[in-house]
Write a structure and sequence with these properties.
Layout: H1 2-39, H2 43-60, H3 62-67, H4 69-82
Helix pairs in contact: 1-2
Length: 83
C-alpha cells in the first residue's frame, strides 16, 4: 500500500518536472524583452512581458497548479478559521 502511494507521488513529481524545462526557457527570454521595451519606452509592452512570468508558469506547470489546488484552499480556509 505504501509503495503504491510513493509510486504515485514519484510519477506526479516526474510529470511536474517535465514542464519545468519549458517554463525555465520562457522565463529566460523575458528579461531581455523587458529591457528592450524599457529602452524603447514602450511601457505597455514592458508590463505585458512582466505579467508573462506567471503565464509561462501556468502554461508549462499546469500539473503543479492542479496538484496544489486543494492543499492551497485548505490552508486558506484554516487561516480564515483561525484569524
Amino acid at each position: 500500500m505504501m509503495t503504491k502511494n510513493l509510486d504515485g507521488w514519484r510519477k506526479n513529481l516526474s510529470r511536474v518536472l517535465e514542464g519545468l524545462d519549458g517554463a525555465k526557457k520562457e522565463w529566460a527570454e523575458i528579461p531581455p524583452k523587458m529591457q528592450d521595451a524599457l529602452h524603447n519606452k514602450d511601457y505597455k509592452d514592458f508590463f505585458h512581458h512582466l505579467s508573462d512570468y506567471r503565464g509561462a508558469g501556468t502554461e508549462h506547470l499546469w500539473r503543479l497548479h492542479f496538484y496544489l489546488f486543494w492543499p492551497k484552499w485548505i490552508v486558506v480556509g484554516l487561516l480564515i478559521w483561525v484569524f
